[in-house]
Amino acid sequence: MSHIAPTHSAKTSDPKSRRYVFVLMDNFTMLSFAGAVDALRIANRMVPNSYEWVLAGEGGQEVTCSSGISYKLDMDLVEVLRDDTVVLCGGTFVQEATTKKLLSWIRREARRGITIAALCTATYAVARAGLLDGKRATIHWENQDSFQEEFEDVELTKSVFVVDGNRMTTAGGTSSIDLMLKIIATDLGEDVANMVADQQIYSSIRTDQDQQRLSIPTRIGVRHPKLSRVIQIMEANVEEPISPSLLAKDVGMSTRQLERLFRRYLNRSPKRYYMEIRLQKARNLLMQTDMSVINVALACGFASPSHFSKCYRAHYNTTPYRERGSQAARVPEAGS
Q1: Kind and range of the H or E run holding 170
Q2: Interacting residues of 236 by C-beta distance below 8 A, sequence separation 6+
Q3: What b/e sequence results for 215-251 when a residue is b if at least 16 CB atoms lie within 10 Å of its CB, and e otherwise?
Q4: Could you tell me the pTM of the whole model?
Q5: pLDDT < 50 stretches in the chain
Q6: What is the pLDDT of residue 14?
């Protein structure tokens, strides 16, 4: 296991600088954190003393990211300065990392009016603290299904990042760079933000209007507008699946033409492809929520739990109950 000590406190606090408190949760994603902090580092090369940052976390000693690399922390979860920005960094097993102590600390700092940002899955922790109710937010696409089931009062988007008042959320990966470039542009100007992007070999700066996932044609490797449209309809209608005949009608095709289209480009029937979309959502819900298997089945368009179990086993070579059991054994209940 590698260890990385803080190297970011070379300069003393400058009254003009803006301080970021990066809160590293257990198993946080290094890419999101590194992209964000490096954008601030490079901005300081362009305009000296613009930013400073510290690493915080529960216990104040050390935390390990999902890649197995450990970081030494500067501070425990203590009261931050009034003008600080708190940046929570999440990753895998975020429910486990969202402890009662962390939730209490987030709520306390929020009551003091602190700006709070969440990178990657840390959006879950901020939502669990009740700080995103009635607000727009985003989270990594893999966690969207489970998030929507648990936090109905949050307006979840598929954007790469969202800024809603003093709450900021990102989808993970390189989207933290996009958020930081927006912040740098606001603080120091577009020219500085563009220079930072150039230094990071970041040739296309995304905005909060950009979607986090690849387009359907890119994902499936096929550029066919009607095929893309049908898949888009399928992905938007998982709980109440639409019949192949209606899907075909929606794009001005016969059912037989639709069948041929899927066979030609995806080597499977529309019904099979739709089933795989539904089973993928079911697996996400089983592994990321405590929803009952019956409720997961209903959320994914299966009226019969036995039919759901049969389809799941055929696709994943295990049952929904075993999938849920293995997850429960590995990840304690959030907040414990």
Answers
A1: strand 167-170
A2: none
A3: ebeeebeeeeeebbebbeebeebbeebbebeebbeeb
A4: 0.74
A5: 6-13, 329-336
A6: 54
